[in-house]
Amino acid sequence: MTVGLPVALAIIGLVVLAAALQRLTGIGFAMMMSPFLVVMIGPHGGVMLTNLLSFLAPALMIPLVWKDIEWRKLAVIGPAAVLVMPAFGWLAAASPQGPLYIAVASLVILGLSLSLIISRISTDVDGFATRALTGIGAGGGVILAGVGGPAMTVYAVLSRWDVRAFTATLQPLWVLLSVGGFLTKLTFSGNEIPGFPWWFWAGSLAAILVGMTFGTMVRTWISDVAARRTVIVLAFLGAGLSLLTGIRETMGI
Known about the structure:
It is built from 10 helices and no strands. The chain is 83% helix and 0% strand. It has helices at residues 5-25, 29-41, 43-65, 71-94, 97-118, 128-145, 149-159, 163-189, 198-219, 224-251.
């Protein structure tokens, strides 16, 4: 299957917006790309392409945020996410996509809502178990729906993670999860990415650089409070779009 020119150009345009959000908030790339790519090129191919493109933006961002990365948190969340990917990969390959999207999105919305309620309590919720569960949620989300941001947002809210450190630490995590997610989908679902011309990949890389540049310019105007609220809104939006995608897939619309 070869993707036509309008679809390829539309994807490149989405990459610009997604890269800008990634630079501003640390998340947003996969949450913006995945629901639309699933509609454009199918569930498995959309998730695989999301994982592949999601590797580039954070990889380019890592040198910019290196000093703010919290490696101790990453050392628990990252391995937990990677270890559960094969199980979720098998589940994704063996199950209808529609119901899976609905289940994942519903759990994310519930988790986000509960985290906002719990965050009003003065006690922070953090520790090894919390980070491990966060990794499981992020790894499962990447495989099943192409997004791990909502799980990380829940953890950020519960632990009151500093926005700058949150944004920085997520970049190497996304690189790890993108590679792990792509290889897992490739193993269990096969290569379902449609054929793209060479200029699509060059255009996607250029679009990431343009989006990151724009995000860097705008970032100085946005406060930490506004960035935190944006992250939460993006997480709800990503979950909502995944829910709609699941309903569409289930009903065959």
